[in-house]
Design a protein that fits this description.
The complex is a heterodimer of chains A (about 325) and B (about 180). Helices cover about 40% and strands about 20% of the residues of chain A. By secondary structure, chain A is an alpha/beta fold. By secondary structure, chain B is of the alpha+beta class. Chain B contains five helices and nine strands. The chains are: A alpha/beta (about 325), B alpha+beta (about 180). At the A-B interface, strand 7, helix 12, strand 9 and strand 10 of A face strand 6, strand 8 and strand 9 of B.
Chain lengths: ~325, ~180
């Protein structure tokens, strides 16, 4: 397939690097200020090195890439809340051109799901967004395989940064501030970690799952009940540990509601992964609980989910 | 027809009654009305629970289905069912609270939780690393009646909210705590 990529951060770069391996041709690339369009195939390594050295991906305008010759547009710009722009418009342009859209950007799916589905309904293109939840873990496609109406609930850890902080606090007996600083030094947490530690990122993923399960009645971030882990006292983790338990930031999606907050669970529970790993339990109507775990973030991991979504697109 | 509709068994119900006239009779009504066969009543008039209630033990015969209806009927009538069959407080619940636990009157917090109809605090572990006037944390173990976990948690959320305490709830998956 001919692939257009908008957004050249960790995920976008990894999609560019892996596309050829999956048998696709990258024909358009854009970041927020520049673009390269090449109907016969973009020189991916040249684009990535220009991005590193000059901070641009080419000489064309980003619009040229959006209007460019691709079959599927991969949207990897940073997640934004509320109107979810510019990601939402990028998806809209591609759909209006009857092209497919694969999103790694959570904004449009979490905040404007209904509108996105309406645009899809009017288009010959298809929208997929498996990469928005759980990185490399096939959460969305597993739900689709079972059939959303046969899935009762989903619970689990969907934010690696918060999970890393909580597991470090538990194993090292250190307090929140200390572990957060260390996590930032390691590059696991961003300079502004609020998205991760206040539960917003996890909640967006929960909202996306709720939208898939609900099929119709769209929910958005403001419908979610969200509590983060910022400044969680180390003594809470100590008390949990004395009792063979631990605390994790858990997303719960059930009956159309989304709740995110620190929860107590057994140290050895399937839904209490260690480090940056994610783990989710999907409660199905007839097959009980299904647990999935793995790497929930990272450029290459998320890019692999994007490429799997491209494979699932109709021709 | 399956066993739950035909198989008659004996059950013991432990109730806690308010010490008021007519309470015992009122508690027997849902049993009779829902097809329970009364075998015996042990009314411990002189024995008062810590909450000032009178414990009553009732033995009945009923099918499992009817028994469930009887327990529901008793609860609907506002009668405190401590034990129904073998399911005495069959669900254990652990929570952790943090905040100005001592300044906000820990014992009041505990009694408020205790007063939520279906729970009783069975164990508490408190840690106040910075002294009693600063942030402290407590782990509470509660015994809750089967099927009432959601309700108990909802009440605890309200109590924590009111006292500005941080609450870590247990993760409850598919009905299994």
């Amino acid at each position: 397939m001919r692939v257009g990529v908008v957004g050249v951060g960790d995920v976008g770069s990894a999609v560019l690097e892996l596309s050829a391996e999956y048998g696709h041709t990258v024909t358009a690339v854009a970041d927020s200020e520049s673009a390269t369009v090449e109907p016969d195939g973009v020189d991916v390594s040249a684009v990535l090195s220009t991005k590193r050295s000059d901070g641009v991906v080419g000489r064309a305008d980003p619009e040229a890439a959006l209007e460019g010759p691709y079959d599927v547009l991969v949207e990897c710009t940073p997640t934004t809340l509320d109107d979810a722009e510019p990601g939402f418009s990028h998806a809209g342009i591609a759909l209006q051109r009857d092209r497919h859209v694969v999103l790694a950007n959570k904004g449009p799916v979490a905040e404007r799901y209904r509108e996105l589905k309406e645009l899809e309904a009017e288009s010959d293109g298809t929208v997929r967004f498996g990469a928005t939840v759980g990185g490399a873990i096939p959460v969305i496609s597993t739900i689709e395989d079972f059939g959303p109406d046969r899935v009762l609930s989903l619970r689990g850890v969907l934010n690696g940064t918060a999970n890393f902080i909580l597991s470090r606090m538990a194993t090292e007996g250190l307090d929140y501030e200390h572990v957060l600083a260390e996590t930032q030094d390691l590059g696991v947490a961003e300079a502004d970690p609020s998205f991760d530690v206040n539960g917003t990122d996890a909640a967006l993923k929960g909202v996306i799952v709720a939208n898939v399960l609900q099929q119709g009645e769209a929910v958005s971030l403001e419908d979610a009940e969200v509590e983060g882990i910022a400044d969680l006292p180390g003594s809470m983790l100590d008390l949990a540990q004395e009792d063979g338990r631990t605390i994790r930031l858990i997303v719960e999606v059930a009956d159309g509601t989304v709740r995110v907050g620190p929860r107590l669970l057994h140290e050895s529970a399937d839904l209490a992964p260690v480090g940056t790993r994610n783990a989710v339990g999907i409660e199905t109507e007839s097959a009980g609980q299904l647990n999935l775990s793995g790497r929930g973030a990272g450029g290459v991991e998320t890019a692999s989910a994007v490429l799997s979504d491209i494979e699932r697109l109709p021709e | 027809m399956n066993d739950s509709q035909t198989d008659i068994r004996a059950y013991t119900l432990r109730l806690e009654l308010v010490d008021e006239p007519g309470e015992l009779l009122r508690s027997l009504k849902p049993i009779a009305e829902n097809g329970g066969n009364l075998l015996s009543i042990f009314h411990e008039r002189g024995n008062v629970t810590p909450r000032g209630h009178i414990p009553v033990e009732v033995d009945i015969e009923a099918t499992p289905d009817r028994f469930e209806t009887i327990v529901e009927g008793l609860r609907d009538a506002g009668i405190n069912v401590i034990q129904a069959g073998t399911e005495r407080y069959s669900e254990g619940l652990t929570i952790i609270l943090s905040g100005h636990l001592i300044d906000t009157d820990l014992s009041d917090t505990l009694s408020q939780i205790q007063e939520t109809k279906y729970a009783t605090v069975t164990d508490i572990s408190l840690t106040a690393p910075q002294g009693a006037t600063d942030i402290s944390s407590a782990r509470l173990k509660l015994a809750t009646e089967s099927g009432s976990t959601a309700e108990v948690l909802e009440s605890i959320r309200e109590i924590a909210d009111e006292k500005d305490l941080r609450l870590v709830e247990p993760l409850i998956t598919g009905g299994d705590v």
